Amino acid sequence: MKIVIIKYNAGNIRSVLFALERIAVEAIVTDEPDQIRSADKIIFPGVGEASSAMHYLRERKLDLLIKDLQQPVLGVCLGMQLLCTHSEENDTECIGIFGERVKKFSPNPEEPLKVPQTGWNNIYDLKSDLFTGIAENSFCYFVHGYYAGLGETTIAKTDYVQPYSSGLHKKNFYGVQFHPEKSAATGELILKNFIQL
Amino acid sequence: MSRIKELFERKKQNVLSVYFTAGFPALNDTVLIMQSLQDAGVDMIELGMPYSDPLADGPVIQASSTAALANGMTIHRLFEQLKNFRNEIQLPVLLMGYMNPVLQYGFENFCRDARMVGVDGLILPDLPMFEFEKEFGSIIKKFNLDFVFLVTPETEEERILQLDRHSSGFVYAVSSSSTTGKNAALADQEKYFKKLRSLNLKNPVLIGFGIRDKSSFEKACSLAGGAIIGTAFIKILENAVRQEIPIRTKDFINSLK
């Protein structure tokens, strides 16, 4: 099976590679269109800023390529957010697979929560093959200041400031806000589930 | 010779180091917990400085840090609490935490105050080796503090050797580059610790992350000089009122031996 991790100007690729290594899966990191198109599974990782990432993808027409992919694609963190329609982060039009919009956390001044959220939080209302074997309220590791709202394609929810989408799914596209590559056994199982889709 | 080096001179096997978060379960439990660990017979203490962003911790230690911060723990408070701890505690003590609050405090001030109260060493998992070499290592040495780097199964051999050269006291082997409270497959772990042994490091190796009971402690001791317990001990402290801390600690430590 050919697993491709899309290389672009948003980081955290090595920890995804290491996590895959831990579950004995080899992957290629590339921005070559042919390599990406011929993959069986594609991971679209990302830690970074939405507008510069979209700018980079558009320059290389990777945004259009991603949109046309037919095989399972997993967006992680910023990767998931870029698969939504729009991000408040520098008012960025995104790839537009998921109908949800990405907004900035704005904590209630009476109960100040720090932004970005950094650390472990629960995922619940799990509805997808991606979460086979994952218990409700399992802990996953998050680092993000922006979130996707709830919508039709929500397959996992998390509460921080308010409930939001920590997982999205539409057709062959999946997205998770948390970092499965940093989420211990739960994260490894989610990556395994994705590889086995 | 530092207290840490002295310990490893004296004891080459089955070293038990215990981590807990300062300011948890209650703000002023810090020295009592140290005393309880000493009375229970542990060899070394890693005192966690709570930080809001647990970059290398699991959910249990994250929750203890959140509670400690809510209790009002800060580095200033911690040094206040530690002012006279050397009257009671003879064990080697390391401070463990993240760079952000240490830099806020001032790195040099932090090292000076740590030395002054009688702390022996530091573990700062998010201090990169490059910055240690460039800037911070010399300050740490100036105050005669030991410094411990972490290595993971994914760390390249050449880098492990460099990290060992820069470490003094021991090297902290984590079972995986993910966070605390998780278990890698045992077979992989054995391969990794065998590799560490074959590198002939100058420092002893302690295994951290994933040690929770007698059998995992024994397993770790068979692969390295000893082990570090964190998450499992924090769980013991959860909901403990002050009077219960010594007995709970003693029972837990006894259960490992």
Question: What's the arrangement of secondary structure elements?
Answer:
The complex is a heterodimer of chains A (197) and B (257).
Chain A: E1 3-6, H1 13-22, E2 28-30, H2 33-37, E3 41-44, H3 50-59, H4 62-68, E4 73-76, H5 78-82, E5 86-87, E6 92-93, E7 101-104, E8 117-123, E9 138-144, E10 146-148, E11 154-160, E12 162-170, E13 173-176, H6 184-195
Parallel strand pairs in A: 1-2, 1-3, 3-4, 4-13, 5-7
Antiparallel strand pairs in A: 5-6, 7-10, 8-9, 11-12, 12-13
Chain B: H1 3-10, E1 15-21, H2 30-40, E2 44-48, H3 59-70, H4 75-82, E3 93-96, H5 99-105, H6 107-117, E4 121-123, H7 129-142, E5 146-147, E6 150-151, H8 157-166, E7 171-174, H9 186-198, E8 205-208, H10 214-223, E9 226-229, H11 231-237, H12 245-256
Parallel strand pairs in B: 1-2, 1-9, 2-3, 3-4, 4-5, 6-7, 7-8, 8-9
Arithmetic mean of pLDDT of chain A? 94
Number of E strands of chain B: 9
Backbone structural class of chain A: alpha/beta
Give the class-level CATH name of chain A: Alpha Beta
Structure notes:
The complex is a heterodimer of chains A (about 200) and B (about 260). Chain A has six helices and 13 strands. Chain A is α/β, with parallel strands linked by helices. Chain B is α/β, with parallel strands linked by helices. In chain B, about 50% of the residues are buried.
